[in-house]
Amino acid sequence: MILLKSIPKIDKFVSNKAFEDYSKTLITSISKDVIQKLRKDILNENIDSFNEEELIKEVKNEYKNITSSSLKKVINATGVIIHTNLGRSLIDKDAFDRVKAIATSYNNLEYDLKEGKRGERYAHISKVVKKLLGCEDVLIVNNNASAVFLILNTFAKNKEVVVSRGELVEIGGSFRVPDVMNSSGAILKEIGTTNKTHEEDYLNAINENTSILMKVHKSNYTIEGFCTEVEFKKIIKIANENELIDYYDMGSGHIIDLPYGLQDKEPSVLDYMKYNPSLLSFSGDKLLGSVQAGIIVGKKKYIDELKKNQLLRMLRVDKLTLALLEDSMKSLLLNQKENIPTMKMLFKSQNELKQKAQELKQMIDKYCDCTILETKTVIGGGTTPNKKIPSIAISINLNNYKPNKIEKLFRNKNIIGRIEDEKFLLDLRTIQDDELNTIKLKIEEIINE
Ligand SMILES: *Cc1c(COP(=O)(O)O)cnc(C)c1O
Fold it and tell me: Of 8, 42, 314, 440, which alpha carbon lies 20 to 30 A from 172's?
């Protein structure tokens, strides 16, 4: 066991000149782990030699791993605009600059500057949202899942919530409507069948313990063929006639009408506000195109009740969220699509995308074989299930490698594309204008490796 004896002592090891410019505490902690593993490996006879240089290198590598940021910028070349795995909606760069001063200095988050006393954090955004949506009041929470939970917990604890069987969905990240309902304390009253739910089903389900008639957006699936569902406006009417609360979990809520004929199938928040619903909620970072948040709009008497629930303290949003959301809502009020990256990408014409594709092709033509082609993509984020939108992509061929291999080479450079028909594609719909040059540089790196 001569090898065991030659394991360096921690104190001596960490005082090596190689670690001079490093945090001593962190180097010591990592060195302990590395040396402990070395001892184990020797005892298990996994290794029969080592040298100190290698140990130093290992410690330095681990140090770099821990201290460099794990959350990294990536280029989304998948074409999926609201990509759930890639951070959903983008925040506009200029909006971020405008908000910077608020987040990096003291501000009037909960201070009424006019009165010189405590103010309300939700007041900042309520004026602009009320104007934009024509609602009586608004409340912002951490995300739409929190909005659903807060509403059910406030109004339906130990009471029945009527939902169509066709809308008891599971969306990504283990959000299942029946389970959320259960943990909020509400009692689920399922009605109808998987494919058909009628107005009578709602009427027949109502009893003295009913509190909410709820509708849920199907998000990532569709029912086609022999099917019927009850429109929200009819549910609102039934709720009014029976003195109940109507609530629509819209999932993604959009304000600007959708292009490509999608608007007929997917009414906007404004379309629903015409019917004066009790409550409606949607995400801030799906089609609205802002930050992660849950936006609850509706009648003031219900929003007031929500504000009294202790849970709100756990679900409340930070100044950064409020400031960015206020900025987006203002852009929407002024119809400035160009300040909302999600909308900007969605509305790019095929011609604009083609031009961008040609520009990129010219930049990378000398490194790889590439062809511009017309393709289709999806909006994503469970916004418009099973609906495709047109797009333009560049297919990349590198040294006749298999598409899987090219995909991996690009992914290692933080460029995420997609494989379709045995081709590796970069879809121009989600590539930002200032990313073309980065793509060129990364391809150069790939070629030279
Ligand atoms: C996306 C979605 C949610 C969850 O919204 P988050 O903002 O991700 O919390 C809830 N309900 C429906 C129908 C959805 O589509």
Answer: 314
